[in-house]
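Intended use. Records like the one below are meant for learning the mapping from a protein sequence to its folded structure. Do not use them to infer anything beyond what is encoded.
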Amino acid sequence: MATTVISYIVFDNTSRSPLGQVKMAGVTSESYGVPNRRVLGFYALVYVTGGKGYFRDENGFSCELQPGDALLLFPEIGHSYGPLKNEVWDETWVVFEGEVFDLWRQGGLFKPEQPLHHLEPVEHWHKRITSAVWTQPKSGASFALERVCRFQQLLADIFLQEHQLEDEKTAWFSQATALLETSVDTSPHFADLAARLDMSYESFRKRFTKEAGMSPGQYFIQQRMKRACELLVAQKVTIKEVSLELGFFDEFHFSKQFKKVMGMTPKEFCRLFR
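Structure written out for the chain above:
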């Protein structure tokens, strides 16, 4: 059976700043994790640097873990985690508490329902975590405050990276909607649009529908009718002129689709809003 090896980098239960405290931190190799339910009286950050494992908590959250995954554990929430069978488990961990971290939680930056985060590259974030809590062998409130401030900066960087990644994940959707909204006067080729976004048409259709709550075709029609309403009200052009400007075959086809979307004919719309 493998032997758990723990290398402490910080162990300080005495020095406390007015904001809070980084109580303890370490690097654990070949760990058994926490196979039985555990409830902490403080916060903990656990960063997986090797092996695959599992995590579950009493809120019903469960997931598999891999290198690069980070768990943010909360006080009074029971949990367990550890390696899968035949896996070697390595982790870097930090224990912390205090008023400033409670404020992070109250402000929604710490969310008990979202304990899992992912940070890559692993070596980079392992060094970031250890350097954030590493101090020379000194004690006192000033050094404790310095450590708390560095650790807060680490947490801020973690959340900023996650938001940046989330923005990148949805950038394609912003580009897709912009292209559809600027092509309301033509009939778009969705396969070509998907190719511009480096996706297959099927993947694009599914992802767009999930993000927008409607298919790309439905979204395009909606934007087309929105533009029709703007033209009819603001510019007071004729229905025939609007149908031609928006690329319809004739006024009849335009009126038919307008009524289907808006629930009234273009003539009825003009009587109401002109």
